[in-house]
Every structure is written in C-alpha cells, then in structure tokens.
Fold these 2 entries.
Entry 1:
Amino acid sequence: MALCGGADRGSHSMDKSITLPPDEIFRNLENAKRFAIDIGGSLTKLAYYSTVQHQVAKVRSFDHSAKVSLQETDGDPLYEISVQEEITARLHFIKFENAYIETCLDFIKDHLVNTETKVIKATGGGAHKFKDLIEKKLKLKVDKEDEMTCLIKGCNFVLKNIPHEAFVYAKHADSEFRFQNTHPDIFPYMLINIGSGVSIVKVEAEDKFERIGGSSIGGGTFWGLGALLTKTKRFDELLQLASKGQHTNVDMLVKDIYGGAYGSLGLTGDLIASSFGKSATTDKEFSKEDMAKSLLHMISNDIGQLACLYAKLHNLTRVYFGGFFIRGHPVTMHTITYSINFFTKGEVQALFLRHEGYLGAIGAFLKGAEEDNPNQYSWEENYAGSSGLMSVSPELNPVQRARSGTFDMLEMDRLERQLVNLPLLQDATSYIPDTVDLTEDALAREYWLYCFEEALDGVVKRAIASQKDQPEAVERAEKFRQKYRHKLQTLRHQPFAYGSLTVRSLLDTREHCLNEFNFPDPYSKIKQKENDMALKYYLKVVKSVEELSWEQRQFTLAKGLLAGNVFDWGAKAVSDVLESDPEFGFEQAKQQLQERPWLVDAYNQWIERLKGPPHKCALFFVDNSGIDIILGVFPFIRELLIRGTEVVLASNSGPALNDVTNSELQILTERIAAMDPVIHAALREDRLALVQNGSSSPCLDLSRLDKVLATVIRERGTDLVIIEGMGRAIHTNYYAMLSCESLKLAVIKNSWLAERLGGKIFSVVFKYEVPSKAQEQH
Amino acid sequence: MKLRRCSRKPAFPWFGMDIGGTLVKLVYFEPKDITEEEELEEVENLKSIRRYLTSNTAYGKTGVRDVHLELHNLTICGRTGNLHFIRFPTAAMHRFIQMGRDKHFSSLHTTLCATGGGAYKFENDFRTMADLELLKLDELDCLIQGLLYIDSVGFNDHPECYYFENPSDTQNCIKEPCCLDNLFPMLLVNIGSGVSILAVYTKDNYKRVTGTSLGGGTFLGLCCLLTGCETFEEALEMASKGDSTNVDKLVKDIYGGDYQRFGLQGSAVASSFGHMMSKEKRDSISKEDLARATLVTITNNIGSIARMCAVNEKIERVVFVGNFLRINTVSTKLLAYAMDFWSKGQLRALFLEHEGYFGAVGAFLDLLKSADDA
C-alpha cells in the first residue's frame, strides 16, 4: 500500500510518492490525539499521542466456589490466566523530509477520526511557512510555541526517560559512540544549539533556563560561506567535501610561523594559528575540499571555544550539543569533540543526543499536553517501534545514510509507575546496570547476537503454543520473528542503535517485539504448571530443612536457592532439558550444581554474618516462577523471617520469560501461607511484603525502580539486598555497589559466559559484599 | 616606565624586529645627537643604512615606513633621536636577508634582536645567507615591554592610548585620547594573523589566557578568496563601502523583530553569512558587502571571546593591539561597541596608536638591556 493520496485529490507540487506501508509509519493514527509539529529547514518532525490497545495476561486466584474450570490441566489449577485488553499511552514521533509534508498531512487527514483534537502545536523555523497548509489540510488551528522552550522541554524529557540518550563521540575508537548513563539528576546542564547561529542555554530545572550567550558563527556560516567559497549548494555536500579536505593547505599553522612548535606556550606546530591565513599570503588556487575543511575547523573550534568559556563562567560540566550542524554528522561531532577537548584540556566532554532531532517536536508536544501531565509519568523507549540511531558514517554505511531521506520513528510508552533510583545505591551517578557493554566488546556482541538469533525459533514456537486457541497466532508469531530478526540484523551493523547494546537490551527488545504482536506472556501456562507442581513439594522441602543442624540448614537453604535458579527457561541449556524432560527434578538440579569452592564463593563470610545479629529488613529481587521461587526462595526467606528479619519480595510488574510476576507471586504467597504458619504469620504481621519492581524485563536496572518500592525500602530500613539470577545479578548489577550488605546469587547456565568468567556451565556465583564503613556513612 | 641607565651603550645601528605570520615589523632608532667626531668615525655602510631608512618612506614594492607614528626626540640610553616604524610582508623576508648580506650588515658588530615566530623560522637563513646571528626573544614578553614603554613615553607629547566616547551611539561615537594612571590588570588582545589574549597583572606577571585562529589573517584570507582582492588596504577599502546586513542573517530576519524571550535585538546578527545559504541572495551580493561581512564577523567574534575572557578573569580593561586594527576604524568602533553593549558598560575597550609595533619595540628595548647586562 502506498502512502500517496495525491492522485485522488488532484496533484500537489510537493507530493512525493511514498511506498512504505503507512501502518508502519503513522502507527495508531486512529487513536491519535494531540498533535505537534516541528518544521525545520529540511526536516519535519511530527508528534502525536495515541492510546494503544494490547493484550496483557492477567492472573486471578481461581474462584473455587464457582467450580467452573476454564483450564484443561489435570487436577485443581492454581489460578486463572486470562488475556485482557489493556489501554496504554504511547507517544509517536516521526521525522521526514519537508518534501513529504503535504502527502503526510493528507494521509493524516484521511485517517484521523478523533474529533476532539482542535489545535496542533507548532515550532521550528518553518512553522509559519506551512501554517496555512496545515490549517487547511487538517482543519486544526496552528498554535506556535517558542522554539527554544520546546527544545529545552524535549531535552529534559529524553534525558530523564531514555537511559542511554547521551553519548560521547570518538571517531577512531572501536565503537564510535560511548553512551553515558543518565544521572538521576539531569540538572544543571548546558545546551549548545548550533542552527544557523549558535545559542548557548543554561538549564537549571524543568522550567528554569536562560540563554547565557551565543554566536553568529554557526551552521549558517558554514553553509553560506561554504557555498560562496566552493560553489557547492547543499549542506551535506559541503560536509562531504570537508571530510575529504586538508585544512593545512589553507590555514596558517603555528609551524608555518615558527618553523616548529611555540614551545614555551605549549602550542604545537600543527595548531592553527590563523584560519585561512595561507589564502591571504599565498597567491594560488585552493581546492574546494581544503577550503571546506578549513571552514569546518574554523567554525567548530570557534563554537568549542565559546562553549568552554561559558561552561567555565557558569561552572557547568555537562555540555550537550544539538542543532542541524550536529544532527548526527560524524564530521561535525568529531571536530566539536576535538575542540572541546583542546580548550578544556579534557575536563569537559562534548555530549551528543540520540534523539537530538526530535527535541523540538517532543517539547512542542509536551507544551500541548500539559493537562495530561506527561512529566508526572515515567516513559520508556519502545524498541519495537523506534528506528534507532542510524549509522552516521557515510563511508561506513552509505546505504543507511540515504535512509534519513525517508522516515525515522521514535515511540515512547507511558509506564504505569514513576521510576526512581534504588535508595541503597552507593553512588547513583556512577551506577551502570549492565555488566558487559556489547557495543565495545565485539567478541561478546558476536556471541550474544548469535545466541538470540539461534533462540528465535524456540521463542516463536513458544509464542504460538501459548495461544493455541487463536489460529492467527501463527501469522503473528511469524511477524514477530521477522521484526526481531530485523532488529538483530540492524544491531549487528549498528550496535549503537538503541544506546549501549547489552544482553539486557537484547532481552528487552525481544519482549517489546512480542508485545507488539500481542504475545503478552508466552510463558503464562508453563509458569502456571510449574508453580502448581512446585507447590506440591513445598512442605516436604521445608520439613527436610527443619531437621538439619543450624549450619547444615543454612547451607542447604543456600544450595536450594541456587538449585532453584537452575530452572530458567531463559537459559538455552536449561530450556532444552526442560523441554525434553519436564520431570527434571529439584534434587537433580542440586547435583548439577558445582561443588564448593564455587566460582565466586563468599559463603563462609555469609555464614559468619548469619551468626551475628539478624538483619532488619531484606530486599529480595526474585527471578523465575516455579521451583525457583517456591522451593528455592521461600524456604530461604522463611529462615530469615524466623531470624527476625523482615522480607520484601520485589518481583516484576509485567511478564518477562518465566520470571514470576507480582500478581502471580501474590497468589503463590497466599497458597504457601495457607500451608505454612510461618509465612502466614509473617504476612499477617506485615513482616513479609510483596512489592512490584516496576519492570517487565528479565534484567534489573536499579536506577529505574517503582517509586512505591523505593519508599518501602526506605521506610523499613532495609539493610540487606539479595539479587538472584543471571539476568539480575550477572548480566546486570554484578558490579553494582550498594550502601548496605548484599548477596548476588546465580547459577551460570551458559557455557560461553561461564568460560568468560573462568568457570564451567552450572558454575555458582555466591557474592556477598559489605560496604566499608566510610562508604556506609556516605 | 623608567628606562635603565646604560653603562655600556650597544653599537649602532639600533634595531628591533618582530617577524610575524604576515608582517615583519621593524623599529629603528635614528640618533640625532651624533657628534662630528662620531660622524667621522661612522663607517660608511652604517651611514648608508641610516640614510636609506630615514630618507625613504617606502622600501621596494612592499616595505612601508609609518611616518605618522615616528617618535621624535626620544632619549634612550643617553642618546637622543627618533624612533622609526617600518613594516613589510613576511613573504619578503628572504629579500630582506639578502639586503642585509649585500650591505654587509654582519660587519657592524651589532646584535639583531628579533621576536615573533619568524625569529625561529628564519634564524638559520639569517645565519647561512647573511652571516647574522639573531637574538631570539619571546614575542609575548616583547609585546608587553614594548607596550608599556611606548605608553610611558607617550606619542610625541600626546597620549598613546585612546578609547571611544559613546561607543553604543554611532552618531556621537568619538575617539578620545586618554592617559591611564594604572594599566593593570589588563586583558591584552593582540590581533595579528591570529589572536592571542593575555591577562597582564604587572610588567613581569602575565599569562596567555587563550587565543583564536580567527584573526587578521582570516579576514584577509577570506576576503581574498571571496572578492579577489590582494591587500589588506584593498580589503578594508571595500569593507568600508559594503553593507553586511545583505550577507548576514539578523535576528529580525528570523523573528520579524526582537527575540524578546531572550532579550535579543532585531538588529543583532543571528547568523554570519546566513543569507548566503540562499542561491538568489548569493547571486545578488556585492564584493563590498562580502568584505564588510567578513570584517564584522571576525571583529565581533574577537570581541565576544575577549569579553568572555575579561569576565572569566575579572578584568575590566581590555586593550586591543595588533596590525589588524591598522586603519581599521570599522573594527575599533565595533569592538568598543561590543565591549560596552554586552557588558552593560562594565568593560572598556582601549586602543593604542602604535597598534602592531609593540613586539618590535620590545625587541629593540632588549637590545639595550642586553648591552647593559654585558
């Protein structure tokens, strides 16, 4: 289907035929409300808000009195699984060339059914030029918003909601982009917007910013002066010329004056003493390339110098660059980075933004949506619906570069909860959740991309199996396969597309893609079955432990916890076994475990600690359903409860693989409480609390946790954090430093990873850490 | 500034030289108190040099003596005479060295004090071509010593220093000479081919704050490429007739008026050469407009960096020197305006009559000092 309605309504001068399927560009347009548009010199950015209806798996304690079994499992099913339609809010941002604007407006008009919408917020230099066209086509009133205000609003929004928004550019490094973890406190920062001129803005709070300076030497100077000097008309062509030129032919260098370096001042010979200085004294022709390069250096250095002077004056260290001069162009990012490095002697880093081009549109949208309070929520980039950062090195990927000529998309999903830092992080500003950055580690990247591609068939099969009653599930699952495979292929070439590539981002992308095709919880039935089975053994396990001596008991409980963690559908080695041998027992799992000393073995220190006074409150980030949670975690925390330690079980808010969700855990806990007076009493006395963590990921980002959980942690005086499982304790948080005692427990169920850590498959990590006194006070 | 008493006078001729990226600046002391006895003893080639330099105002095709800058009746090291200011392009350096050889300069037993990058670059050429040894001096040291000396002796009974009264009012902006009781601390902005910015606290205590490669060389270089002109004078002449607003995009070109949200006047330049993004405008532009825009762009940028440095260093006096300012009232007035306007009257731009010669004067002073030390 072509996104071209021009033919029916007569021809328009600006029409361009677009052959991309429209439902992949202007998604959910039927439910769209609130529009905003940012029209720049060459690109238009459209923003709208939509509600997305998608299926979510809900579990509900089975109503035994009704005696109506909807399940086909043998015996009494534990709980009911139902798929419900849920409505969530999503922000859509689409970027396209101005040439497509009319076609796009026509398309929107035809598909817009929401009549509530009356105005469209507009910003950008081109907004007034297209005002009449927009009003005529969409019958919406164009409401202009200040450009800089929108820019800052947009910038605040992406910095707050997209963890890997900002990056440092390093031209010659293995990975061009080095992503920065967003600090929880994004203020104050300096934004240098290089459009035709330069604006330097200091941002101190959400609504507090000030233009502290600027310069008239900006992108317009490069373009205008460049066009005069080289007779080259287009900005991109000028940059192309510049990337091939030698500025030393045009510029007068220090060595041209001194014959070498100016040593006493530390000025090297290659430093530019006078831009274009040679063209003043030498009577010869200069090549276009050389002049363009010299001009680029002149302007980048000048902007860099001013930026540093302003940063110094206002004592700001976070300096972000944006505007069409930057907009992902490697040449300008490189020269700006170089200049900032030179003038600050490396003290300040030039930071760039993945969604720089969208800031104005995001800001304009937010201005119009103030009554919905978008800033009150946390948002999350939807990897399934976002294009990601394109490769910007033209020499590296010329095909991708052309892509900017079509459509680029960003989707942000509104989360039900506000996300905050774990209050127990030793230093929130330096916390990095992920253990390995696959963007930088090419070997690991190769392996994991291969791994996820290999596992794709199984995931597709699982997805279909989870919806046996829906015949079109096969088709949807196939679409999912294509989408995710395409994402993996993109990431192979552009590992930086969505920020730092990590095992977590690969897992999350898969979850987003599954949700996109309405497979909200492919493991729901497996989880149900395994929970059911494990519950039957609960009392037996608890009893067998009770008979042991104290020391033996502690060891058995720890071992049980680890053995439970072997049951993980997310690990290929295990899912293969589980698939073929469902009776793979708890005892067998214990035997599979590595003998002590474990790969990481702090058990002795832990047991010594247990001989001391009980902890006040333990926070436990749980992992899998079934044996893991019921036969591993519960007996373990039962012992803690008996010792007088309060326990907070933090589980996922939404489904991911076979991880136990909060709603499932509620039911399981009730069932266990019915059997076990210890748990029953703890629940009743509120010594055991079940709180959701705000995440739907198999991994764990401690800087994005449900605000409620953070409050509970603080109120209960939590002094022990237990993180369990590969996803949460190995792929993420392995190096996380906490301000209280912590246990990181996992069984490495992947031989490649085990080998990397110096062990074999089913190696055990038992990491017990105590912060030093000084850090504790901190 | 008191000049040291010279116990031993150096032999004539007394020169000081500053070899920059574009221009060579030469100061020459012409003794006027030569006794008959001395006259008789004076060797012929020394006489001929004196006559050659003082009886001409132009040397070859490109050398010029700035007669209007000559300082009369100066007493230095017990000798009284006139100080002459001569310049020629660095490109002519080899011809100058050849002349030194032809005039047997090396037989005069004088020390040739030189500063600027060329003192290093051409040192070997002086030695091999003309058998001359240079005494190389740091250019920033020379700049400051020369500046302080000229300021102290004054400009033939007039102040060396001047500023602009009413810099923000183009109608009533007038040049006013001034004597400063105390120059320190000052931000010294030396605009040659490139720009160096120094914070000077006392006569011996200074630091180079920063510099920029967008300087006089950039102005001339871009003008040559854009208009086909060949000399600084030509470029300035064109610039004086042009209108930069045909080339630059102003705030009002974008916002229709002032950008009130940020207190930016409509007449402020938003994007230098911004209009040149459009082909129609490129096709309709005059060379004079381009020259003017280049001059305004470079000048404003220097003003902006200087102002930021002054604020960062907490210095209120900003002294602009360097040959970029020669016969360049467009730039001096613009700098005066920029300092005053953007600092809301906090900063004052000061200028000196001998603009680009202070390095050479500093080198000349060192000649006398070196004799003293000997």
Entry 2:
Amino acid sequence: MAGVGGGNDFQWCFSQVKGAIDEDVAEADIISTVEFNYSGELLATGDKGGRVVIFQREQESKNRSLSRGEYNVYSTFQSHEPEFDYLKSLEIEEKINKIRWLPQQNAAHFLLSTNDKTIKLWKISERDKRAEGYNLKDEDGRLRDPFRITSLRVPVLMPMDLMVEASPRRIFANAHTYHINSISVNSDYQTYLSADDLRINLWHLEITDRSFNIVDIKPANMEELTEVITAAECHPHQCNVFVYSSSKGTIRLCDMRAAALCDRHSKFFEEPEDPSSRSFFSEIISSISDVKFSHSGRYMMTRDYLSVKVWDLNMENRPVETYQVHEYLRSKLCSLYENDCIFDKFECCWNGSDSAIMTGSYNNFFRMFDRNTRRDITLEASRENSKPRAMLKPRKVCTGGKRKKDEISVDSLDFNKKILHTAWHPKENVIAVAATNNLYIFQDKMN
Amino acid sequence: MDVEARRIMALSISKLYSSRTQRGGLRLHRSLLLSMTMRAARDIYHAAVEQEQVVPCAPEEPMDTKEQDTVNDSLKEVNTREPKDNLEEDKENQDSKSRKRRVKTAIEPDFLPPKKARMDTDEERQEVLKPNNGNGCRQTETLTAFPTNRAIVAC
C-alpha cells in the first residue's frame, strides 16, 4: 500500500518497540516526551516518573541489510524528582514535559529537560578508559599506607567497558510561577527560552541565577484572564525571532530586536472562526497544543484538537494548509469533555525535508500528511503488527453507514490509547511514536 | 439545549473542584477552559430558562449572542459563588414549575467543597520583583520557596 513521506511512495514498516508488555501500565512509565537529536543518532524519551532514557542507533554494518541500525538503550537517568512547594502546599510533579537537545560540539552530548518548574542541562558523556596504577590508592580505591609506598609510578590509562554517564551541569530553577509547557534552544546555541502559561523567559545556557522575562501576558487582575500561552519555539535560523501560541488559537511572532519586552507582537496569526461550527466546546478545541517551525524556517505548523494547520510566516490571516486529523470526533465533543480527552495535548512534527507532517490520535493511531500530494494515511502502533520489518497496513475509521471490513467504528475507538508524542528523524524516514508506556520505532522500507 | 447546558455546567463545576486536588496543583490552562465552558453553558441555560418563563413557546435564542460576552469573572467562578447561587435559584424555578415540595435549605450540592481561598491570591503575595537594572529588560521574579541547596547526585 502506498505510504506517505515525500516524492516517492514510502512504505512504513515496524522496526522496534521499547517498553513493558504488561496490560497494567504504571503511571510513572507513561512517556511524556520524545525527541531525536540533531543527527538522529540519539533518541531521548522522558516519562511521568521523571526519568530520561536515551537510545543510540547502532552503527550500520558493511553488508547492507534491509533494515537500518536499531536503537538500543544508551543511558538512563533520573532527571527530576518530585518536589514540594511548602508555601503553596503543592506538589511539583516530576513528569518530564519536554526534552530538547543541544547541537553536539564535542564528544559529549547535552540536552535540556524540564518538568513544571525546573529546567536542567544534562551532559551525557562516555567513559571507556580508566586510570590504573595510582600511587596513593589501591585498585579498589582504598588509600595505601604511606609507609608502604617505596616508589613512584605514573598512572596508565587502560581500556574499560564503556560507561555512559549523565550529570546535571546546570539547574535553571525558580523562574516560573506557572507550569512550564515549552523549552526551545535558540539558533545562537547560547540561549534558550522557556514558557509557562503566562510568561516566557530567555536564558543563557551558562547562567542559572537569572533569566530575562521577554513575554508577560498576566493581566493586572487575574479575573480578566482570557488566554494563556500554550507553546513557544525559537526560529530555527533567526535567533531574534520566536513564536508562541495561545489557548485562543492564535500565534504571535515576536522579534527581540524590536524591543526588550516582547509583549507586543510583530506578527499575529489567526484564522477567522467559522460561525457555523460554533459549540460549547469551540474554545477548547481551538486551543493550540503545539507549534513547530519547519526546518526551512519559512513555515510553522500548529496543532489544535481536531486539526493541524501549516502557516506561511508571510501570511497572517489564515493558514496555507489545513489537515483534519479526526474530524469524526466533532460530534463526540460532549463525551470527550466528560472523559477529559478533549484536554489532551497532541504534538506534531515535520519530516526532515518539510514535505510531510505527522501527528497522533486515539486508538494508538497516528496520522501522516504529505504536503505535496495531499495524501494522508492513518497507521497504528500496535504489538499485533510487531514482527520485524512487517509493513504497516493503513487504518480507516468508519464515520457512518455500513462499516467495511477492516474499518473501525468511532464508537469502538479506545480513547485511553492516545498518541500524544511523535518524532521524526531529522534526515531519514525513521519515526518514533510514543504509545502510553511503549515507544515504537518505524522505518521506511526503502530507507 | 438547556438540559445539555445544565449538564455541561454541572460537569464543569465538578471538574473545576476535582482539579484542586490534582497532583501538581491547579492547572491554569485547564481551569480557564473549564471556566469558559461553564460560563457559556450557564448563559445558555439562563437564557433558555428566562425565555421559557417569558414566552413558553418561543424558540431558544441562538448560542452565538451569548458567547460574545467577555469572560470577566471566569476565575471568580472557581469559587463558585455565582454558580452556587444560580443552582439554588434554578432549584426554585424548577420546583415552582414541577410543583414539588420546595427544599427550604441553603444546603449546597454534595460535590461543592467548603469555601476556599480564591485561586492565585497566594501567588500574588509571593512575587518578588527584582529592581530594574537599567538595561530595559525585566529580570524574572525569584521565588525563594524552593530549597536550592538540594544535593544533586551525578548518575
């Protein structure tokens, strides 16, 4: 079956699945963020238990096998612990909201991880040599009796089993009153921004005891609050430009050269609402849950509850493309409000060439849209399709009338199986899809 | 329509209250959306009830006109003083229509907890704004609530 992903037709195949098979899912194991690094060699996941797991791609063997290198666990560490705010009597969750990699500048890898309140810069480095032959201590580390030292020797570096160490190099704390929803590394590779519901701060990676507040939408009277910030991202090439989305479905682009305080936007993106589709839940479903610049920097993509929209940065009054993710849910909004699913925050991502976009849905379905051919496909992350290199069969939701064979009806969808987080390899057709506590990796057959 | 509106209103209120006990504290975004939805439902419900009283046979007003109002007391409703009053008022309206024996108490519905402090008042007291250092940028507020001398153990 034809897939989606660019000029040629691609065929998505199962590659790997990581995580427990148990039906009983431990809350702490639920994956809350997925991110490839700049080269695609490393894939990081964060979970609700505050842990970060990094997978590394195996080097490809000389004899070309059909499937490319697999991702294996490279490092696991506890990034955030639960904390308690004594003044407000509130617990601060350890859940990792976002992970963002820094570009690699030396042998070590660096990433930023954040929970609701604190951002941490982690250094992940390899150690494959150990010094042996110390003068003052034994091989097991105990101090030698000084009287027994009769000669001096120079310690020698000996190879050892590879050890991957993760150490927190910077802790950026106490700068957010509200819950952090986004972090984004700037293209200058020196600064990054962090956004909570009402404010956006600009940090320098080397400085932890202060940051600059660049956006503040908190009203003087909180009773007048009508919208919050839902996501923010730095432009991939212009280090002075960033965007932030709101709960009202609008996006503001700000230029830090215009003013130190970016309360006034440079561009304001909003699509006029269709009055015929107004309902009790119009506000909720128009809230933007994710915003991502294209790799080119020319476009940006936003995800609201039912659709994905691609915007040209040069046109503010409407998106250039709109893709319906699961329009069949529009008539079910009341039930989705009841079971809280309407508040789910789906993310979206671009492929490396910006020709395709991907986002998740329910029943462990995820959707891909080819921007050139306008074709779309629905695939499922399921252990039933988990034979190595098994091709994924497109799925279809029956929206009414007679259900065809292999179609699934809307009422049969499992709303507990939601795919909120997906990531696309920056250069190849390899995707990572987080399905609750499992991480699926799919590859294009021709990859 | 008014039945659905009332249902959504009650649902919203119960969600608002249960979100207070959620781990991680009150989520501003979610609370805002719940408040807005509740307000919209309440407005529809009241409009429907008023119309029924004035002209029992007249059709319902379209929803659009009600949702143009600015949400200027959306967060006050977290305290549910207004909705609580309205619910009691609704009870009376309903009772008068159905001729059921009126419940003459000020008992609040079961799912409403005792009155608590309004959202965000604590936060305003805690803000400590750093003095402007003259370069035109705002420095972030520092909350000294968190113990900063936690030992961070390298893995």
